[in-house]
C-alpha cells in the first residue's frame, strides 16, 4: 500500500489545489479534524481488515461521526435534529455506518482528554440504543417538542435564529445594495467570468426548475468554504433577492457533488444514479424524517451540484463544547436512535435490508463487541496517521501538487 502522504495526495489531486492547502491546515488542527478529512482512508482500511460480522444492507450517510448531526428546517417548516451530511452516501452493510460513528467517539473523547473508560461507556451506550431502536422497528424523530437536554436547548436556539441575523453575518451594504461580504473568512472572490456564468445559470434554474424559489434573482456570488472533508470541492454561495417583496433575500448554497469515497470499498452493487448530486439528495430524502427545505440538483459546466438553502437554523453540534458528561450521554443516546431510525425509514428500498431483517440485527447481540474492538483499534491507527501527517505537514511535504 502507498505511504500515507501519497494516499492523501492522490485522493485530493482532483480538487482545487489552493483550497486543498486550507484543507490540510484544518486537518492539522487535531486528530478528530484529521479523521473528518480522511473518510477515504477509513474505508480503504476497513476493506483490507478482517471482515466485520454480517449485517443487513442499509442506506447510510457514509461519513457518520459525532459532528454530522445537527438542526435543519424541513419543507414542513419545522426544525429537526437529524443526520445532516450525505456526500458519501451509499448502500452498504449497516455496520459500516455504526463502526465509523463509534470510531469517532473514541477519537473525540481522546481529543477532549476524557478517560478511555468513559469513551468505552459511550460506545456501549450508542450501540445499545442503536440496537434497541432497530429491534423495535419504528423510526423516531427529534424536534423541539420531543427533544431532551442539550439537544432541546440547541433546537430552541436554532428556532430563534433569524434570516436577518444570518444576512448580517454574511453580507455587507454597498451603495444601498446588499452584497455577500468578502470580509468573511469563508468567502472568496470569484473570477468575473465564472461569477457571470453562475448568475446566469441560477437565474435560469429559478425560472425553469420546479424546485426553485419563485420570483427571485441572483444579486451576488462568492466561493464558499465549509466543513473539513469537503474543502477543495467547488462550492458557491449566492445571494438571491425577491423581485416582488421588498428587502427579502435568500442564501443559496451550491456544492459540487463528487463520487462517494466509500463506494469503491463497499462490497455492494450501487444504483445507477443520474449523477452524483442525485445520489446525495436521493439518499438524504430517504434517511431524514422530513426532507430539508429547498433541496435540489443542477448541472453547471458539465458537473453535478447540490443546491440547498443556507438556513439560519442549520447548524451542527460542536462536540468540543460538550464538557458535561450528562449532556454527552443524552446527545449520544439521541444520535444512536437517529442512526437506527434513518436505516429503518429506508428499509426494503432498492437493495436495503427489510424492516424485519434490520429488527433481527438489532436483537442480535453477537456483533457489537467486534465493532467496538475494530473502532478502538482504528482510533489508535488514526492517531498514528495524524502524527505522521502532522510531521510531514510541518516539514512542508504537502505543498501544491
TrEMBL record:
<protein>
    <submittedName>
        <fullName>DUF2252 domain-containing protein</fullName>
    </submittedName>
</protein>
<dbReference type="Pfam" id="PF10009">
    <property type="entry name" value="DUF2252"/>
</dbReference>
<dbReference type="InterPro" id="IPR018721">
    <property type="entry name" value="DUF2252"/>
</dbReference>
Amino acid at each position: 500500500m502507498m505511504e500515507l502522504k501519497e494516499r492523501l495526495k492522490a485522493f485530493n489531486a482532483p480538487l482545487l489545489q489552493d483550497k486543498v492547502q486550507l484543507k490540510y491546515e484544518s486537518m492539522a488542527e487535531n486528530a478528530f479534524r484529521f479523521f473528518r478529512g480522511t473518510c477515504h482512508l477509513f474505508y480503504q482500511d476497513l476493506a483490507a481488515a478482517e471482515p466485520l460480522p454480517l449485517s443487513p444492507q442499509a442506506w447510510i450517510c457514509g461519513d457518520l461521526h459525532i459532528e454530522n448531526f445537527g438542526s435543519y428546517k424541513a419543507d414542513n417548516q419545522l426544525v429537526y435534529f437529524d443526520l445532516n451530511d450525505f456526500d458519501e452516501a451509499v448502500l452498504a452493510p449497516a455496520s459500516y455506518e455504526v463502526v465509523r460513528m463509534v470510531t469517532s467517539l473514541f477519537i473525540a473523547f481522546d481529543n477532549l482528554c476524557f478517560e478511555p473508560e468513559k469513551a468505552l461507556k459511550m460506545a456501549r451506550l450508542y450501540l445499545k440504543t442503536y440496537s434497541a431502536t432497530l429491534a423495535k422497528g419504528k423510526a423516531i424523530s427529534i424536534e423541539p417538542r420531543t427533544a431532551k437536554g442539550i439537544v432541546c436547548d440547541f433546537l430552541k436556539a436554532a428556532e430563534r435564529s433569524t434570516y436577518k441575523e444570518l444576512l448580517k453575518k454574511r453580507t455587507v451594504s454597498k451603495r444601498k445594495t446588499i452584497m455577500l461580504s468578502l470580509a468573511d473568512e469563508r468567502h472568496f472572490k470569484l473570477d468575473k467570468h465564472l461569477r457571470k456564468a453562475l448568475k446566469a445559470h441560477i437565474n435560469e434554474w429559478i425560472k425553469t426548475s420546479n424546485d426553485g424559489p419563485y420570483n427571485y434573482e441572483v444579486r451576488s456570488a462568492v466561493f464558499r468554504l465549509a466543513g473539513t472533508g469537503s474543502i477543495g470541492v467547488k462550492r458557491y454561495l449566492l445571494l438571491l433577492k425577491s423581485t416582488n417583496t421588498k428587502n427579502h433575500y435568500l442564501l443559496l448554497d451550491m456544492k459540487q457533488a463528487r463520487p462517494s469515497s466509500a463506494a469503491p470499498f463497499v462490497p455492494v452493487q450501487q444504483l445507477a444514479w443520474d449523477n452524483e448530486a442525485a445520489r446525495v439528495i436521493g439518499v438524504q430524502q430517504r434517511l431524514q424524517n422530513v426532507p430539508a427545505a429547498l433541496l435540489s440538483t443542477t448541472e453547471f459546466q458539465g458537473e453535478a451540484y447540490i443546491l440547498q438553502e443556507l438556513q439560519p437554523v442549520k447548524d451542527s453540534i460542536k462536540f468540543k463544547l460538550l464538557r458535561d458528561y450528562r449532556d454527552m450521554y443524552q446527545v449520544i443516546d439521541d444520535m444512536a436512535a437517529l442512526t437506527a431510525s434513518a436505516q429503518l425509514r429506508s428499509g426494503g428500498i432498492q437493495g436495503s435490508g427489510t424492516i424485519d431483517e434490520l429488527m433481527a440485527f438489532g436483537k442480535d447481540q453477537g456483533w457489537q463487541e467486534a465493532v467496538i474492538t475494530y473502532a478502538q483499534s482504528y482510533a489508535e491507527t488514526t492517531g498514528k496517521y495524524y502524527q505522521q501527517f502532522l510531521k510531514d505537514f510541518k516539514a512542508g511535504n504537502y505543498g501544491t501538487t
